[in-house]
Amino acid sequence: MKKLTISLLFLLFVVAAKGQTHRLLFHTTYGDFKVVLYDFTPKHRDLILKAIDNQVYKDALFNRIISNFVVQGGEHDIDIEQREAQDLSNRKLRLAPEFDDRAYHKIGALGAGRDSNTEKASFLNQIYFVVGKPVSAHDLNQLEEKKGIKYSNEQRSDYLKSGGQPRLDHDFTVFGEIYDGLEVILKISKVKTDAKDYPLQEVRFELSEIKD
After folding, report:
1. What is the domain count for the chain?
2. 25 beta partners
3. 97 Cβ partners below 8 Å, 6+ apart?
4. Model confidence over 49-106: pLDDT tens digits?
5. Each residue of 11-42: pLDDT tens digit?
6. Could you give the residue ranges of the DSSP H alpha helices within 54-201?
7. Which residues constitute the domain of residue 138?
8. CATH number, residue 190
9. Strands 126-130 and 204-209, how do they pair?
10. Using CB atoms within 10 A of its CB, is residue 161 exposed (0-12), middle (13-18) or buried (19+)?
11. Is the overall model pTM greater than 0.85, yes or no?
């Protein structure tokens, strides 16, 4: 059953990858996986492409790992807070959110981390992947009422069949998804961590754009 689920997810990701312009390769301690960036979230797409050119994520770490939730990497919340506290100009550079109904928190979704800013704007150098958990129709109905949104038939079907983290929708920007190698991020999500969700052994990654 697990193999069947992964196969179905893979087919969905392949379909989603078609028609998009940019794809990324993530090379990690646990293997490689591939990501498609959404052209309908262009600011976040361009931000990570620029980060690759500037080697922002060279030898980076997945430094916050929560099983059945997310695998987060890049600059950690604590490091961002400390760096900004030392900036006398009190600048807190963020990227405005890009919410699109085609971009939601299904398993394998690539999102941008953020703090509690009211604009829901993203950190510039922090990303996460959804590893998710089972979702029920009751969960979706409650979220629709709480958030004042309406899940499409596609979203509802995807969440009910495969799970995810719909409670993050319209609060954090999703700007891509894994289309090959989902099993790698799922494996990473199971590594042992300390009480603060740091992995006990370093999980490193680098990323590059796939040009072919």
Report:
1. 1
2. 34, 208
3. 119, 120, 121, 122, 172, 173
4. 999 999 999 989 999 999 999 999 999 999 999 999 998 887 899 999 999 999 999 9
5. 444 445 556 899 999 999 999 999 999 999 99
6. 77-85, 137-147, 153-162, 182-188
7. 2-209
8. 2.40.100.10
9. unpaired
10. middle
11. yes
